[in-house]
Design brief:
The protein is mostly beta strands. It contains no helices and 16 strands.
């Protein structure tokens, strides 16, 4: 299942069964849902998580003839980086600045690039969550993962990308004979 965030309503997720011989009924099999979450008999996972953590729960599904069991995983993060995963384009040679936003947890927050990830050349990543500078990178897409940690040590991560583009070129100017265009129409001579 897609990750969930503490205290934020979870977008309903429909579990599906393949090769069922009839209508399917879903239930928990000797397990419990994460706090604040529910599973309907129709296989719909809904709710607002009230405790962060990584949860496994076992579901039972039956079509009246066959019964199957499946483990389902749900990762509930205590905080969320709310910026869109595709950050604004960086124009080569132009100033750039983006501030990362976070919800949940307890501030102050610190951010870090994951592993050997890098951002476009010329931009600087500040642990306060600001990416700024003047891109000197050529045209391309830069993918990286950022981790945010709150003052109590709780963290979350999210993949991001920045596309670097060249400075927009000016449209060509057409000046065929003079500093203005003649008003010529088909069949009439230009004057």
């Amino acid at each position: 299942l897609p990750r969930a965030y503490l205290g934020r309503p979870y977008p309903a997720q429909q579990l599906t069964a393949l090769n069922a011989l009839g209508p399917v009924t879903w239930s928990l099999n000797n397990s419990v849902m994460p706090p604040g979450m529910a599973l309907s008999s129709g296989g719909l996972v809904t709710g607002t998580p009230t405790a962060a953590g990584f949860y496994n729960f076992n579901v039972r599904l039956t079509d009246g003839t066959q019964t199957a069991f499946r483990w389902v995983e749900l990762d509930i993060h205590p905080l969320e980086i709310t910026n869109d995963g595709e950050l604004p384009n960086a124009i080569q040679g132009a100033p750039y600045s983006v501030t990362l936003n976070i919800s949940g947890g307890t501030g102050p927050y610190t951010f870090a690039l994951s592993g050997a990830d890098t951002i476009p050349t010329g931009l600087v990543f500040d642990p306060s969550g600001v990416i700024s500078g003047v891109s000197t990178a050529g045209r391309g897409s830069w993918g990286f993962t950022l981790t945010a940690t709150d003052s109590q040590g709780r963290s979350t991560w999210r993949p991001f990308s920045i596309d670097t583009i060249l400075e927009p070129q000016q449209a060509p100017r057409i000046n065929p004979y003079t500093d203005y265009f003649d008003d010529c129409t088909l069949g009439n001579p230009c004057e």
